[in-house]
Amino acid sequence: MIKKKKPNYKLRRKIAKITLILLIVVPIFLINQTKILNFPLYITNIKYTGIIDSLFEVDFTKKEVKDTLKYLKENERINDNTKNYILELDSMGYNKNTIEYVIKNLNKEQITEFLSKKYNKDYEKYIENDLFVFSKLERYLNYQNEHKDLSIDEIVYRIELNLDKTYYEDSEFVKNPDDITVLTNKYLEIPEDYEPEDLVDMDDNYANNSYRQLKLRKEAYEKFVEMCDDSREDGVNFYAESAYRSYEYQDILYKNYVYNNGQEEANKYAAKPGFSEHELGLAIDLANIWTITTKGEEYAWLSKNAYKYGYIIRYKEEWEDITGYAAESWHIRYVGVETATKVYKKGMSYEEYYIKYIAN
Ligand SMILES: [Zn+2]
User: Fold this and answer.
1) CA of 15 to the centre of ligand 1 (A)
2) Are 207 and 292 contacting, i.e. CB atoms less than 8 angstroms apart?
3) Which of 62, 187, 200, 310 has the greatest number of beta carbons closer than 10 A?
4) Residues that are catalytic
5) According to the model, what pLDDT value does residue 269 have?
6) How far is residue 214's CA from residue 106's CA, in Å, rounded to a whole number?
7) Measured in angstroms, how far is the CA atom of residue 230 from the centroid of ligand 1?
8) What is the domain partition of the chain in residue ranges?
């Protein structure tokens, strides 16, 4: 009888353990070796302008960044300034995105200015915002101080809209009043002599012409007719009470409003001449103004359908601090079907949409 040899379990277990450890440790070691060994070669082979890019492309540790900078300096691939800026920003505690932004986008003067500021974690969040402009940093911080409930994103786009400035006083002229997507508000003024070239008379069927013949830009009018016809098929009826207004006419309306209600109240509801969307020939006040409320069936229909005809509800209660106007459930604005659809889907005020997706 052959005696079966008892297997050496102890040894087998030991071998399995060692194999397992090697399987984990060796690849880690190899990966690190290649990265460390190949890095100078990698850096040497790229053009000077690409060096900073590559430094931020790979996720290096702080020590690796320091070693790399030292290597680049020794090989004259980077100057003293850049090296020192990177090290200083890093030691202040800024993340790679911030360091990258500062090195790539700011000039020497601006970098010195940035370095003189105390570390602020919020700077990193501001810099990550698509609309961030370095020269507006102080304005962001001041606005943030006054509006502590707003997010960084809300602060940045509001500064882009100049909401921290004095309305009517610090305004700029719009450059493209003929563009159907143009934004006008208390900070963006329409030139006094602007008059749309394609104004058309509105038909009595769609407008109250009993005081004066209402006019609108051709494209906006055609879409309005289409919208009225369709809404009437659904049993909902509205028409235009006011449409295009000249600068002079807006002036009369505004002065009347001020005379009857006082300046402050007037600014909430009426636009100063030069600042009304009605001067673009793209805005309509629907009738009957006082019956078109957010609770009415007209408003419900428009909320659901207006964008399909290129119209947006321009002034809502939740946007009052952005638009600068009290909610107007009767005021609609033509921006074209494509833009109106996008604005509708984003659920944004036109100010926010414009600054994020049209102006920039
Ligand atoms: Zn209006």
Assistant:
1) 84
2) no
3) 310
4) 328
5) 80
6) 52
7) 22
8) 9-127, 172-358
Backbone angles phi, psi at 333, to 5 degrees: -130, 135
**For the chain, what is the total number of helices (H) and then of strands (E)?**
16, 8
pLDDT at 11: 87
CB of 56 within 8 A of CB of 64? no
Q: How far is the CA of 184 from the centre of ligand 1 (A)?
A: 13
Residue type, 208: N
Structure tokens of 199? 């104004």
Q: What is the DSSP string of 236-253?
A: ---EEEE----HHHHHHH
Question: pTM for this one?
Answer: 0.80
Cα separation, 209 vs 207, whole angstroms: 6
Give the C-alpha separation, 41 to 62, whole Å. Answer: 20
DSSP code at position 156: H
**In the structure encoding, which two tokens stand for residue 264, read together?**
């402050």
Taking only the tens place, the pLDDT of each residue in 276-285 is 999 999 999 9
Kindly give the distance from the C-alpha atom of residue 352 to the centroid of ligand 1, in angstroms, as a whole number.
19
The DSSP output letter for 215 is: E
* Long-range pairs, 160-168, Cβ under 8 A, ≥24: 160/131, 160/133, 160/355, 160/359, 160/360, 161/185, 161/187, 161/322, 161/351, 161/355, 162/187, 163/187, 163/321, 163/322, 164/139, 167/267, 167/324, 168/267, 168/272, 168/275
Asked whether the beta carbons of 327 and 315 are under 8 A apart, the reply is: yes
